[in-house]
Design goal:
The protein is globular. The chain is an alpha+beta fold and 187 residues long. A 3-stranded mixed beta sheet has the order 1-2-3. The N and C termini lie far apart (55 Å). It has one domain.
Length: 187
């Protein structure tokens, strides 16, 4: 019962004028988005471990530091961050350290949740050449490396993990993406 009182205090403080149903629906929506992100992250890590002898490992401590997985390739440590490409303001603000940390490289594993038909529609309607190029790059990236199920869930093709592995072995360094045009690093 004590937890119920804490939840009520939290609701009153942050959602004072809202109904219980509104708060429950918002909470449910947030949990759903979080769950989908976790499943997508796990998919990449399991895909990696099924393809390569250098296994990705993860822990709660690494997760608290913003590291979704760590792998050692050719005696180099790579911290992986599986991230959704989004234009939502709160997603655009980076919370984690960028660039190299000590002797560890950071590699962002990006994915797009757009429907490919919607991307194509945006590409066709874009008036500026920069916007057209942005959508073209996203479509090419999506078609090459991602698969979208009928229910909208996105998974990685094995070619994506293979490309990341190749970049780690041949072009050691950070793969931190500052904008959509940086996706060309993966082509």
């Amino acid at each position: 019962m004590k937890h119920l009182q804490d939840i009520k205090k939290f609701k009153q403080k942050y959602f004072g004028g809202c109904t219980d149903d509104f708060v429950k629906l918002g909470f449910k929506a947030r949990l759903y988005r979080t769950w989908i992100s976790i499943l997508t992250q796990f998919h990449f890590l399991y895909l990696w471990n099924s393809l390569f002898r250098e296994k990705v490992y993860a822990s709660a401590e690494m997760d608290m530091e913003g590291i979704d997985g760590r792998v050692i390739v050719d005696n180099n440590i790579f911290d992986l961050q599986v991230k959704k490409i989004s234009y939502r303001k709160e997603v655009g603000i980076r919370r984690f350290t960028r660039g190299k940390r000590g002797n560890t490289y950071i590699f962002e594993i990006l994915y797009i949740v757009y429907d490919p038909k919607e991307l194509n529609r945006k590409y066709m309607r874009a008036r500026e050449s920069e916007s057209r190029e942005r959508y073209r790059i996203m479509m090419e990236f999506f078609n090459r490396y991602l698969l979208r199920f009928e229910n909208g869930f996105i998974v990685f093709k094995k070619e994506y993990a293979q490309r990341v592995y190749e970049l780690m072995r041949n072009k050691l360094g950070n793969y931190v993406f500052r904008d959509i045009f940086d996706l060309k690093k993966l082509f």
